[in-house]
Automatic annotation (TrEMBL), chain A:
It comes from the Bacteria. Belongs to the binding-protein-dependent transport system permease family. LivHM subfamily. One of its GO terms (cellular component) is plasma membrane. It is a multi-pass membrane protein. This is Branched-chain amino acid ABC transporter permease. One of its GO terms (biological process) is L-alanine transport. Keywords: Amino-acid transport, Cell inner membrane, Cell membrane, Membrane, Transmembrane, Transmembrane helix, Transport.
TrEMBL record, chain B:
The keyword Disulfide bond does not apply. It comes from Paenibacillus abyssi. Pfam families: ABC_tran (PF00005). Residues 2-234 form the ABC transporter domain. PROSITE patterns: ABC_TRANSPORTER_1, ABC_TRANSPORTER_2. This is ABC transporter ATP-binding protein. GO terms for biological process: L-amino acid transport. The lineage of its organism: Bacteria, Bacillati, Bacillota, Bacilli, Bacillales. Gene3D superfamilies: P-loop containing nucleotide triphosphate hydrolases (3.40.50.300). Belongs to the ABC transporter superfamily. InterPro entries: AAA+_ATPase, ABC_branched_ATPase_LivF/BraG, ABC_transporter-like_ATP-bd, ABC_transporter-like_CS, BCAA_Transport_ATP-bd_LivF, P-loop_NTPase. Keywords: Amino-acid transport, ATP-binding, Nucleotide-binding, Transport.
Amino acid sequence: MLAQQIVNGLTIGMIYALIALGYTMVYGILKIVNFAHGDIFMMGSFFGLILIRNVGLPFVVAFALAAVLTALLGILIERLAYRRLRFSDRIVPLISAMGVSIFLANLAQKLWGSEVHTFPKVMEIKTYTIAGMTFSTVQLLIFGLSIIAMLGLHFFVNKTKIGTAMRATSISITNATLMGINTNMIIMITFAIGSALAAAAGILVSIYYDAVYPTMGYTAGLKAFTAAVLGGIGSIPGAVLGGLILGVAENLGIAYIAAKYQDIIAFCILILVLIIRPRGILGKKEINKV
Amino acid sequence: MLKIEGLTVHYGVIPAIKDLNIEVPQGKVVCLIGTNGSGKTTTLKGVSGIVKAKAGRILFEGKDLTKVDPHQIVHMGISQVPEGRGVFPDLTVLENLQLGAFIRKDKKAIKSDLEEIFSLFPRLEERKNQLSGTLSGGEQQMLAMGRALMARPKLLLLDEPSMGLAPIIVQEIFKIVRRINEEGTTVMLVEQNAKMALSVAHYGYVLETGEIVAQGTVNELKNDDMIRKIYLGIH
């Protein structure tokens, strides 16, 4: 029972982690919380749904294309809603982010209706029992793809030239510019990667819960933000760790306290982290205003 | 090589430098001396495009830098060692040096240049896998200079390389500045330490509250009474 709850918690934790990565990467570079990120995740999910259900593309192609489209959406949002505010007081891009969030949720509702869509069947759902724990094929898909995405990101950020430039930009945009790095390009790449990961999370969770709807980004976005803060916002390993811890904590709460407390657990964690250790588990010490 | 014409930079409404005219000929070391807040750093930031000019032109090999994106200026052959060194503390020494060569694609030459930097600054090689934030001030200065050289610049901008360093380290740093120049790189140097600056430069400018108050060859400046008194402390 306990082991099974942990497995289920890790599954949803992977989803939180994938979304949290986008929050943390953008924060790492621009020091802004992209509150539209939950809605980017929702849009990714809809892109996947439309490409499979309406366009009829095979799952793998639709998955990749949805990630690309969502990446472009992320780039567009940075260009339109954040770039001009880069040197404003930090509360200003925050307001802009909320505006984008409201806009996207309403756009989705206008385009696709407010009802809950079911997700087309993309694979044979089987379950496997290993050492008393049950895994479904969807869970295995979530684990597999999430781990591949995280390892890929880790390699990109730490081992490639652009990844190194990205880390430099997150330390100092000015000094990175002095290296000849086109920091606007780096910021675009950051938004693109974060958004593509959110799209992956969106499609995976839609398959898992069999539901796509315009407001799905709201709670998921806040939870992933909690995960990013818990792990230490700005830290990539922190986002993954925070996501997994949050997913497990939520599932244990559902199992041992009551299912209706699921959301309360996440936000209690957020409040506790902010009071006890605002920099999170792996975050660096710094003085923050927002 | 570099010609600054009538450069004016404002921070908000406050002018930091006013109508500055400076020339840096190829192959020379030109220094800007002056006290805190005299506009030396702002001038360098203007050249590298980090601050925007309100008026004036900055011509580098005939091209006006005020119309070029800051990162493109590095591609044109100007590298800056910024005030406070600007190393990336969470990155290793090696990663910092590799970022210096960010604009280059000639992998083989980058590798041999890295060896050269290590022979110029052996301390950096010993510490290449260390996070650069753990280096001493002098080592960070060496790293910042090595990093700027990795871009193979035609013009090297140095902002207060002596800042916060022990006299013996300052001597070492300036020896290297001279060597860099002898190997063919033009240098524009900003310093509060006028004595050291004038020991390596060919030509100098004296800045006070954003304006040039004196200029000349190093010998002329060294023999100028005002400069001897105020900047060199010789009575």
